[in-house]
UniProtKB/TrEMBL annotation:
GO MF terms held by the record: metal ion binding; peroxidase activity
Keyword Heme: yes
Domain of life assignment: Eukaryota
Recorded family membership: Belongs to the chloroperoxidase family.
InterPro entries for the chain: Chloroperoxidase (IPR000028), Chloroperoxidase-like_sf (IPR036851)
The protein, known as: Cloroperoxidase
Native organism: Hyaloscypha bicolor E
Length: 278
């Protein structure tokens, strides 16, 4: 499958860019994807092996840098957690995107913007849920671009909504950071690092669909941002959005590059202990 207008676009681009951004194909039999729309999109665009398997940290660093201008510091932490998510191959040197579907490790979490919670859906926590995503996107009704205050409100509403559903909702300091990071990533990569202004259309395209359908909104005009998204910029964005919605910060938690690194890597960001059973 080729995206609309990809032939015309390819005539205007260097070969490598045309192959990766304007070319897209869905996963076939045996291919795997993750609950993260960004990683799934990079795989279907060819920045990661199309089968979504045997990812190493260097592969992830190159893919996130070339496809989204996301820094090696973030990619290394996520990649390290990915290696821990492959228990059948410990000590691991690679992992598959499908390993990232594990509940609360390393990137899946309750109160997601586009997936049902683990307890609510009999463990089916990795498939796209259009009802949930539309409820989050509805906060941008009438807006052409996202903003930090509105993105923060949409994120906090998901926490409040899921927290009221039942006692099995999990929201520790680690999930606190992961849920803010989910929004920080999309408004940074699809928009800018300062104001969080991403065209709503880009957000819609990059999220709206199962992990087998999502893509980068290249045809719509998106290009990788010129300023890099990394742990430092994500920390600033997390702080800005928390200040905008007034959510109470867990006692003892600070917004630093190190606490983000701990949370993204599968560790408790306050006490620094690994919260994953190997």
């Amino acid at each position: 499958m080729v995206l609309p207008h990809s032939t015309a676009l390819s005539l205007l681009l260097p070969l490598s860019a045309a192959q990766n951004f304007s070319a897209w194909s869905p996963p076939g039999p045996g291919d795997v994807r993750s609950p993260c729309p960004g990683l799934s999109s990079l795989t279907s665009h060819g920045f990661i092996s199309h089968n979504g398997k045997i990812l190493t940290i260097p592969i992830l660093i190159n893919a996130l840098n070339d496809g989204m201008n996301v820094g090696a510091d973030f990619a290394t932490v996520i990649g390290g957690a990915g290696l821990l998510s492959a228990p059948a191959n410990l000590p691991s040197t690679s992992f598959d995107l499908g390993n990232l579907n594990e509940h609360n490790f390393p990137i899946e979490h309750d109160a997601s913007l586009n997936r049902a919670d683990n307890y609510e859906n009999n463990g089916e926590n990795h498939s796209f849920n259009r009802t949930i995503f539309k409820s989050a996107l509805a906060y941008y009704d009438g807006m052409n671009a996202t903003s930090i205050p509105v993105a923060a409100e949409a994120k906090y509403n998901r926490v409040i909504t899921e927290g009221k559903r039942g006692p099995k909702f999990i929201y520790t300091p680690q999930q606190f950071i992961l849920s803010y990071e989910e929004t920080a990533i999309y408004i940074s990569v699809m928009g800018d690092l300062i104001y969080g202004a991403a065209p709503v259309e880009y957000v819609h395209v990059s999220f709206d669909g199962s992990c087998y359908q999502v893509r980068l909104p290249y045809v719509e005009g998106w290009r990788p941002p010129t300023k890099q998204t990394n742990l430092l910029t994500l920390g600033d964005m997390v702080f800005s959005r928390n200040a905008a919605n007034g959510e109470v910060i867990p006692e003892g938690l600070e917004f630093t590059t190190n606490t983000l690194k701990l949370a993204f890597g599968g560790y408790d960001p306050i006490i620094g202990l690994l919260v994953h059973v190997l």
